[in-house]
């Protein structure tokens, strides 16, 4: 059997599956997003761009989109601020400590997403561990509202994506040659100066790659915002969920889905161009 | 001049706090699972195993768990077969446009899961596959196969083609040579990829939640919808069991394949 | 044991030709080397014989059977790779047994054959080790044992000794030659090292740019190089440019500065032709100028190097240019010094000249 035909035989089953269950459905949803939804009687006959234009013009939808993007940004920044120090310590730790820390970072990442979010609910809800503890200690009289709002969602999302950020930063920090730091010290640079002018620039592409991943995953997230934010805290993914399963306004949901995809691709596209340019920098 | 440690005490302190932060919900779940009261206190007002009993005796939970396991096993198996084959075709440049194929195979990672979920929902609804086991299985294959492809490509890149050549000259056919020589060397990467695939499927909510019929359920989706309806401590018990299983799996994976190197 | 014949073997890629019209025949039980610089096509030819590369033209025959279209696993050839290609996840025993198992041999017969193969490379008793536990030399021997265990009709070597250090390499050259004589397999050996090729082979095929330059015994190649490339590749050459002059004394190579060296042969050359002349370091005799005798060139020693068995002199020629000459350490001329005036003598049969072309293949 020639190389070509063997290759075709090997690649085609997967190709077929992806075309049928990935590309096909995505393309199929396009026309759906352009249809009209009539409440009470289902999908109308005509085509319209209304589902898309509404996202930009209707303040409700605008708020949802901006909230999603804002959430993405905040989670990313927090993950960076918390994750970089941890990644640094892991990168420079002795082998046994490094392994222990790495496993402690991987472990929550492997845990079921739902389980993790549930853990935060147990902690943050009005009758949850944190509020009960604070009240028992007499520090507060009424429970703090830590759930069903930005706070709860933020904490939950940071917890979910922090391991990704850390695991992406560790190899990048490790790749900075130790003697560069030492060279800076011999040139009278203090710790902070060395970090800012040597380590930070050299790990910049890792920071960007990690940030993009966290941002994209955050704006697409469904489970955590829903569990910790409740049905009233709306982001793009939860709106899609409501549209398809609750209000049954599939066209609107489809339009929102494509918009979310477009935002994701745009962010990835721009950042990979930037990363490519940075790749050539010394 | 004394040797400067790379990480000062402040930095190390922050790092440990962050690690602690990462474990906190795990501790909360375990606490909730054993707590005698429906609300949580520290220290707990009483310890009990009744939530575990309730969860393990609940037929809905058991069935959901079973479904999740079968689904994960089935989609991982299919992903391993399809993904390895596809990765070979790409890595050995056996087909034109290998780079495009690679991009396509990895694409499900970039598309938001919720978008894939709804796209499949409306597509299956149109072709009559809505709520079917096959449809669910295919969806899980799509979301798990990129991990297998990535792990396979990495393993294949470090496999020496001269070894297969040597096997052929010694009398083995191409397929036999691959099976006897290359496959054993790919094992660690495949195990890591397969493990990732399995966990991804087991964990999945954003795709599964749209595709399940009224009579089917997977474990994470059941927990998800249960929580929507109010906190039920047996959820905590189920979650605690999942934590235990994950922990054991991680230790085993690390022991057998040095898992952390492949993450 | 069968004979191996390559009939106008060719491998063309888009953009360059790795092998063009390579024809040679290896007699039953003979040891032939394919010798040439990197990129000359010798490995490509070897891999075509093994069946790992498909030729774009020509045939490969074992005795009278055309095996050109056969896949590698049906050719019954053995191949020792440059990187050894030992299976890292199998023991030494399993590595050597691999080919035998493919032939359906197992049990006691398998064990005996494996032990025989290991004994022939003097590695008995190491069967249970893993390849990574062995030294480079041992790994190389396992690779040899593995390829001869299935008793192939043809044995191929792809620069098997190039990863070994010099001392080990010398030892292995002798061992491999002895082994080949014992087993008597028709052997094709690829190398870029001329001393290796000449010391081990019955005949040597010199390749350059995918084309056979000369195929003959080591002595013939050394003393009667057929092309300018061979003359410049074998031995340690000095390369000069000159012109063919013919007078009553026969053909002579006229070099820079008007010096003439008589030539023993001038086939295919005409008076006035521009020449590439090769004089081997070991063919040039050096003596003080006052002892000048016969045909030669005068010069002054610019540099003296002691290289162990020989002493090397870099001599600036009167009239321009430089030549390197060497002489045995224990000989009479090893004590000359820089600045001495000397006479470099060359016998006519050691003046190798070819017509100068625009671009010479492989040189």
Give a structural overview.
The complex is a heterotrimer of chains A (282), B (263) and C (363). Chain A has 282 residues and is mostly helical. Chain A has helices at 3-33, 50-57, 59-92, 95-110, 113-124, 129-136, 150-174, 178-186, 191-202, 204-219, 223-229, 236-246, 250-279, and strands spanning 35-38, 42-47. Chain A has one domain: Orthogonal Bundle (MetI-like fold). Chain A is built from 13 helices and 2 strands; from the N terminus they run H-E-E-H-H-H-H-H-H-H-H-H-H-H-H. Chain A has a two-stranded antiparallel ribbon with strand order 1-2. In chain A, helix 5 (113-124) runs parallel beside helix 11. The N and C termini of chain A lie far apart (47 Å). With 263 residues, chain B is mainly alpha-helical. Chain B contains 11 helices and no strands. Chain B has helices at 9-34, 50-57, 59-91, 98-110, 113-127, 133-157, 161-169, 174-203, 208-211, 219-228, 233-257. The model of chain B has no long low-confidence stretch (mean pLDDT 86). Helix content of chain C is 23%, strand content 34%. Chain C is built from 8 helices and 20 strands. Chain C has helices at 42-50, 92-102, 107-120, 136-148, 166-183, 194-200, 218-223, 228-233, and strands spanning 4-12, 17-26, 31-35, 57-62, 65-66, 77-80, 154-158, 186-191, 203-208, 211-216, 237-247, 250-255, 260-262, 274-280, 285-288, 296-306, 310-317, 322-328, 341-345, 352-355. In chain C, the strands form 4 sheets. A 6-stranded mixed β-sheet of chain C has the order 6-7-8-3-9-10, sandwiched between helices. Classes of the chains: A mainly alpha (282), B mainly alpha (263), C alpha+beta (363). At the A-B interface, helix 1, helix 3, helix 4, helix 5 and helix 6 of A face helix 1, helix 3, helix 4, helix 5 and helix 6 of B.
């Amino acid at each position: 059997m020639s190389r070509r035909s063997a290759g075709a035989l090997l690649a085609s089953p997967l190709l077929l599956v992806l075309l049928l269950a990935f590309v096909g459905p995505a393309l199929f949803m396009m026309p759906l997003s352009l249809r009209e939804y009539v409440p009470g009687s289902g999908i109308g006959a005509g085509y319209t761009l209304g589902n898309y234009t509404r996202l930009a013009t209707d303040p409700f939808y605008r708020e949802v989109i901006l909230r999603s993007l804002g959430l993405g940004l905040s989670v990313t920044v927090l993950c960076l601020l918390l994750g970089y120090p941890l990644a640094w310590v892991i990168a420079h730790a002795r082998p046994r400590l490094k392994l222990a820390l790495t496993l402690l970072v991987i472990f929550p990442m492997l845990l079921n997403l739902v389980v993790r979010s549930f853990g935060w609910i147990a902690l943050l809800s009005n009758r949850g561990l944190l509020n009960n503890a604070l009240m028992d200690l007499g520090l507060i009289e009424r429970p703090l509202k830590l759930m069903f709002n930005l706070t709860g969602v933020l904490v939950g999302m940071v917890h979910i994506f922090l391991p990704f950020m850390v695991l992406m930063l560790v190899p990048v920090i490790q790749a900075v040659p130790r003697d560069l730091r030492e060279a800076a010290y011999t040139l009278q640079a203090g710790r902070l100066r060395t970090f800012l002018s040597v380590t930070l620039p050299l790990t910049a592409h890792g920071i960007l790659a990690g940030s993009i991943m966290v941002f994209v995953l955050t704006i697409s997230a469904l489970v955590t915002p829903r569990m910790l934010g409740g049905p009233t805290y709306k982001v793009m993914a939860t709106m899609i969920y409501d549209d398809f399963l609750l209000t049954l306004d599939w066209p609107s949901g489809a339009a929102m889905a494509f918009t979310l995809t477009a935002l994701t691709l745009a962010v990835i596209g721009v950042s990979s161009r930037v990363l490519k340019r940075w790749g050539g920098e010394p | 001049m004394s040797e400067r440690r790379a990480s000062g005490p402040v930095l190390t302190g922050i790092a440990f706090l962050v690690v602690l932060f990462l474990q906190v919900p795990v501790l909360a779940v375990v606490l909730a699972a054993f707590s005698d009261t429906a609300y949580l206190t520290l220290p707990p007002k009483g310890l009990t195993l009744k939530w575990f009993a309730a969860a393990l005796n609940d037929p809905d939970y058991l069935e959901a768990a079973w479904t999740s396991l079968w689904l994960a096993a089935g989609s991982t198996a299919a992903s391993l077969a399809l993904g390895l084959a596809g990765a070979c075709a790409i890595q050995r440049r056996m087909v034109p446009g290998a780079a495009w194929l690679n991009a396509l195979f990895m694409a499900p990672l970039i598309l938001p899961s919720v978008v894939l979920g709804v796209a499949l929902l409306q597509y299956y609804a149109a072709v009559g596959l809505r709520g079917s086991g096959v449809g669910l299985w295919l969806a899980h294959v799509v979301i798990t196969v990129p991990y297998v492809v990535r792990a396979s490509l990495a393993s294949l890149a470090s496999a020496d083609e001269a070894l297969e050549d040597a096997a052929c000259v010694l009398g083995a056919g191409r397929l036999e040579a691959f099976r006897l020589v290359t496959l054993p060397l790919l094992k660690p990467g495949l195990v890591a990829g397969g493990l990732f695939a399995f966990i991804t499927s087991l964990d999945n909510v954003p795709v599964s939640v749209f595709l399940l019929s009224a009579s089917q359920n997977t474990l994470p989706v059941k927990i998800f919808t249960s929580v929507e309806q109010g906190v039920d401590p047996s959820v905590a018990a189920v979650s605690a069991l999942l934590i235990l299983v994950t922990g054991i799996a991680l230790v085993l994976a690390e022991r057998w394949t040095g898992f952390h190197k492949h993450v | 044991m069968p004979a191996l014949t390559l009939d106008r073997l060719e491998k063309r890629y888009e953009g360059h030709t790795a092998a063009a019209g390579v024809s040679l025949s290896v007699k039953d039980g003979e040891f032939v080397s394919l010798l040439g610089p990197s990129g000359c096509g010798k490995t490509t030819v070897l891999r075509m014989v093994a069946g790992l590369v498909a030729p774009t033209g020509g045939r490969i025959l074992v005795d009278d059977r055309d095996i050109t279209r056969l896949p590698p696993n049906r050719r019954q050839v053995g191949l020792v790779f440059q990187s050894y290609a030992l299976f890292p996840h199998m023991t030494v025993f399993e590595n050597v047994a691999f080919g035998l198992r493919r032939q359906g041999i197992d049990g006691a017969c398998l064990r005996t054959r494996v032990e025989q193969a290991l004994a022939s490379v003097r590695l008995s008793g190491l069967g249970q080790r893993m390849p990574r536990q062995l030294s480079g030399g041992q790994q190389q021997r396992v690779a040899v044992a593995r390829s001869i265990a299935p008793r192939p009709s043809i044995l191929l070597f792809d620069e098997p000794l190039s990863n070994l250090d010099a001392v080990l390499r010398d030892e292995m050259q002798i061992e491999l030659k002895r082994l080949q004589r014992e087993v008597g397999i028709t052997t094709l050996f690829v190398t870029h090292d001329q001393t290796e090729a000449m010391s081990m082979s019955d005949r040597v095929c010199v390749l350059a740019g995918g084309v056979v330059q000369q195929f003959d015994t080591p002595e013939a190649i050394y003393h009667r190089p057929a092309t300018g490339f061979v003359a410049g590749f074998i031995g340690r050459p000095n390369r000069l440019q000159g012109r063919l002059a013919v007078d009553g004394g026969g053909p002579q190579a006229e070099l820079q500065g008007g010096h003439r060296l008589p030539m023993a042969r001038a086939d295919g050359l005409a008076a006035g032709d521009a020449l590439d002349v090769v004089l081997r370091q070991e063919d040039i005799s050096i003596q003080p100028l006052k002892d000048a005798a016969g045909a030669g060139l005068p010069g002054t020693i610019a540099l003296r190097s002691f290289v162990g068995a020989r002493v090397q002199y870099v001599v600036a020629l009167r009239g321009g240019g430089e030549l390197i000459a060497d002489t045995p350490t224990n000989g009479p001329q090893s004590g000359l010094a820089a600045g001495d005036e000397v006479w470099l003598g060359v016998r006519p049969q050691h003046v190798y000249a070819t017509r100068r072309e625009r671009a010479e293949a492989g040189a």
